[in-house]
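Why do we care about 3D structure at all? Because function follows from shape, and shape follows, mostly, from sequence. That is the central idea of this module. The next example makes it concrete: a single protein chain, its amino acid sequence, and then its structure expressed as tokens.
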Amino acid sequence: MTTKQAIGDKLKALRLSKGLTQSELAGEDMTKSMLSQIENGRALPSMRSLQILAERLGVDAGYFLEDDQSVELARMVRDIEVQFKQKNYQAVVSSVQPLLGGKLPVTVDAARLMEFYVAACYYTGSAGGEEAVSRAAEIYERFGLFVESAKVQYLTYALLFTQGKYEESLELIRSVRGKYLTKKVGNNFLFELDLHYAESVTLSALGDYSGSKEAAQAAVALSREENVFYMTDHLYRVLSNLALMSGNLDEAKQYLEKARLYVKLSENEESVQLLRLADIRLANAEQRYEEALELGHGFQVTGDRYVSSCNLMAGIALYHLLRDEEALEALSRVTLTDDVHHPLDRAAVFTSYAYKARIYARTGKLEEARQQSQTAYERVQHFPSSVYCTFIRDTYRELHQQ
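And the structure:
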């Protein structure tokens, strides 16, 4: 483990090898007395101070934090980062989890390792992420990396969200923002955009669509002001979907066109697929059902979630075109995948039962219709009000009053 004495010994040895006095190395950024305490192992420098000293001595700050265990850990962090970028989340969890029971060194690399682990826990639904967040945040704060500490604490929002703890999730986001604004050195606009986006998503999960819109618009405004267009296409899709749910189709279309501009710039495969699904959803909302089907037919879908969404959109279009058998076939392929956590997304999936119920009803199969509507109705009982829930509940009431 890297200790105060180990850092001090390295610092002193390097200073002497460079022929510098303590006063010369300390400069105007710290007192000679403080540098002396650090070299003698009686004080631990902040990460900022360590970076300044390292720069004057011509080395990376990590040099003072590394021991044999830390060098090996740095290699592991690089390997884990590759796995994470390739979305091998279960591999990340399996690799890091056994290390958490032992004594990891108190280094930035250990914190980074736990940060990847926490994010992977979210994607795989694995338990244990909360403890890793706490440990990583403590390490970051020890080295004065308050923004990094806030960012790793922010990851808890996703863990809470997947558990349906939306109020706690919102409280955490706002708490993290407060800590970040209080302790930040400079601006991290990407993180600020993450916070706005998370707040927007969480507010919509709570049914506060007006607040969700304001948070998304605040993120877009920050992007414009700072000329940082991180996640801009996602934000415009959020705004488009909120407008669609409120029945404002013109506004939904305008936001979608803005999203399209940024998708073209990013050329991100996931963004391309999400935009195409949004196009199909808007076509259905505008009653352009044949066009919705054409968009779906030309869509090269990857990932179970996108396949399911595409089947839902096709089923809705076919339902309105009175092509019942085809509609039932498409709707029967709609599934709730493990990565669908937002209550709006889940409610949209459950409308497939309501559409099937209406098809059965108009073909005289009332028993099957009531069973399907009952399933949909029960699954959205605790969801916030939305156009999806309204459709499901209206279908249930119509069929059960007959």
